[in-house]
Amino acid sequence: MLEARTAIRNLATYHPPLGGRVGLRLDFNENTAGCSPGILARLREMTADEIACYPEREPVEALVADYFGVERGELLLTNGVDEAIHLLCETYLEPGDEALIVVPTFAMYEISAAATGARVVKVPADQEFRFPAPGLLSGITSRTRLIAVANPNNPTGSVARPEDLLELARRAPQAALLVDEAYFEFYGRTLLRQWRALPNLFVARTFSKAYGLAGLRIGALLGKGAHISMIRRLASPYNVNGVALFCLPAALADESYVRSYVDQVRQGRDEFQRELKRWEIQYWPSQANFVLARFGPLNDAFIDCMRARGILVRDRSRDYGCEGCARLTLGTAEQTAQMIRAFREILIQSGASEARIQ
C-alpha cells in the first residue's frame, strides 16, 4: 500500500484563516494599501506571448542583486520566503539532524524542517518574548544543521541583536543559520553580506510586506555564492512565475511609494502602542508592521467585534506563550485611525475602562 513518509504523516498542518477576508485586512501583515500604481501600469504592458513563455529568472536576479548591493551569485529569487525555507531545509537537513527554532515564531520553519525527517528543537523565547540567545547557544549540538530566526520575529515583533546572531553562526559552523528579514523595512537593520566572514549565514527577504506583492509570491534567499549555487541545484528554473518577474523591476523602481508606506506604518505602530499603554493592555514593543497584544478572556469577543466593524485581526492564542493574544497589522495613517476608533469603542462597550484589561 502506498503511504507518505513518516515525517510527512506526522506533520502538523498549517491552515491560515484565509476564507471570508472582507474588510480592512489587519490580520496577515500584508501591505494594506496595495502595491505601487507603477506595478499596475507594468501589468497592463504584459503581452500574451510573455504569459505563454517560461519565465527567465536570471536577468531579474541580477537587478535585485544590484539593488541589495550583493554579488549576483549570492542571490536566488524564490517563490516567496516559504520556498527559500523549504530549499534551505532540503539542502542541508537529513533524517537524524537537528533544527533549532525559537517559539513562538513563523510556522513554516518547523514544517519544512520536520518534513525532511530532522528533529526540530524548540527553544522558548525569554521573558517578555526576548530573543533567547543563551538558550539557542546551549541547544547547539554536533547534530545541529539548521538554525532559523525571524528578525523581527512573527508574531511578537521582537528582534535579536546582530552580535547574538553572528555568535550563533560562529558557534555552529556546521549549521546553516537562516535570518529571515521579512519585516526588514519596518526595522532597518540587516545582516546582508555578513556571510563573507561567516559563510554559514543566510538572509531571506520578501516583497510581500512593504512592497505589496504577497499575491505574486516572490522572495529572495541570499548567502555565500558557493552555498547559493548548491541550493540553486534543487530549485526549479521556473520557480518564480513570469508575472512576478515582470512586475518586480517596477516595484524596486518606486522607492518613494515603499518609503511613504513604511513611514506611515512606523508612525501608526508608535501611536497604537501608546494607545495600548493608556488602556493598560499588555503588549510587546514591535519592530515589525504589527503589534501583539494580550486581551485575555476578552480576546475572542474583541476579534469578533472588530470583524463586525469591518476590521480583520489575527487570533494568536494557539502560539506558544500567546494565550489570549491578538496580532494587529498597521497600515496607512487613515487605516490606523479607523482601527484605533474601533478599538476604543469596543473597549468602552466592554467596560474595559473600569476593568483595566491585563
Explained architecture:
- The protein has two domains: 117 residues, Aspartate Aminotransferase, domain 1, CATH 3.90.1150; 217 residues, Aspartate Aminotransferase, domain 2.
- The C terminus is likely disordered.
- Helix 11 runs parallel beside helix 13.
- By secondary structure, the chain is of the alpha/beta class.
- Helices cover 40% and strands 16% of the residues.
- It has 14 helices and twelve strands.
- It has a seven-stranded mixed beta sheet, with helices on both faces. It has a five-stranded mixed beta sheet with strand order 1-11-12-10-9.
- The radius of gyration is 21 Å and the shape is globular.
User: What is the β-strand count?
Assistant: 12
Could you tell me the CATH topology label of the largest domain.
Answer: Aspartate Aminotransferase, domain 2
What is the architecture of the largest domain at the second tier of CATH? 3-Layer(aba) Sandwich
CATH homologous superfamily classification of the largest domain: Type I PLP-dependent aspartate aminotransferase-like (Major domain)
Please tell me the total number of domains. 2
Number of helices: 14
What oligomeric state best describes the polypeptide chains here?
Answer: single chain
The fraction of residues in strands falls at 15-25%
Write the layout of secondary structure elements.
Blueprint: H1 6-9, E1 24-26, H2 37-44, H3 48-52, H4 58-68, E2 75-78, H5 80-92, E3 98-103, H6 107-115, E4 119-124, H7 133-139, E5 144-150, H8 162-171, E6 176-180, E7 201-206, E8 219-223, H9 225-234, H10 242-253, H11 255-278, E9 283-284, E10 290-294, H12 299-308, E11 311-315, E12 325-329, H13 333-349, H14 352-355
Parallel strand pairs: 1-11, 3-4, 3-5, 5-6, 6-7
Antiparallel strand pairs: 2-8, 7-8, 9-10, 10-12, 11-12
Helix pairs in contact: 2-10, 4-10, 5-6, 11-13
